[in-house]
Amino acid sequence: MIELHPVTLADKTWIDPIVLAENSPSADYNFGNIFLWDETYRQQVGRLGDRMICMPCYEAAPFFAWPVGSGDAAPVLAEMGAYAAARGFPLVLRGVTADHLPLVRDLWGDGCNLEPERDLWDYLYEAEKLDTLAGKHLHGKRNHIHRFEQENDWSFSPIAPADIPACRQMLDRWMETCGEDERDGIEDEYRAICRAFQHYEDLGLEGGMLRSGSDLVAFSIGEMTSADTFDAHFEKAYAHVNGAYTMINREFVRYIRRVHPQVRWINREDDTGRPSLRQSKLSYHPDRMVEKYKVVLQNG
Q: Which residue range(s) make up the domain with 223?
């Protein structure tokens, strides 16, 4: 039987092993994203066998995330269908990756609708590529790096708990100065980042910060999401500092590769359909996309 409750920090102890067992590069499943964005998505979570049930409650029509974990997913999906039916709504699954589609087709065939949700597809990059920025396609990125290095007496360092107040102060200044194209969904993201700072150690987050002289000009925060994939949750830099975004991206990836030499992929998450963000992520020429689908059971 499915029993759900609002997500709390204590859920990390049982969710982390389940997510690692799924071993998906998707950014949707790791506990950090579930917890950090909960003020927006208000997720209910529960455990069924060795799988996690997650039901966000921010939309009028209820839906489930794909039940990640290990073991046979079919009986878990059947329980989710029964849970939905008992409450009078159809079984709708989101965050369904291409890896899950064969099971979906085996279980339901033409009895379900599959809808690609392109705005939610994650961008995956070879970590080595973001480290070296080699190749003609990334020539412009190298130019941004060179300009930043020429114009700044810079330093990079990992974020320690003592650095959190300075990062929070920079975030507040960034909020005051960010451009119009960065303002879509900014309040939700701001709350999520503040939550990351508040629970930085408890969540096991890792971050890096970039300084020009003594001034903090950029930071990035993320966590491991699978055996070989690091998920970059947040990246903020002052737009008026030439090359700051490109520089924090490169330096943070270099740091992650040092502390996690097994990392092959960097997940820079989705673009939410924002044209400026999509252009930025495409400009790094992603090596893979984590395709995600919405599945609606027709007889649900």
A: 122-269
Structure tokens at 234: 């947040």
The CATH number linked to 16 is 3.40.630.30
Q: Express each pLDDT in 198-228 by its tens digit.
A: 999 999 999 999 999 999 999 999 999 999 9
Q: Rounded to 5 degrees, what angle do the CA atoms 38, 7, 291 make?
A: 60
156 and 224 in a single domain? The answer is: yes
Enter the pTM of the model. Answer: 0.95
d(CA 220, CA 235): 4
Task: Judge whether 25 and 121 are in contact, CB under 8 Å.
Answer: no
Let me know: does 263 contact 133? Beta carbons within 8 Å: no
Domain count, the chain: 2
Identify which of 11, 29, 55, 20 has the alpha carbon closest to the alpha carbon of residue 269.
Answer: 29
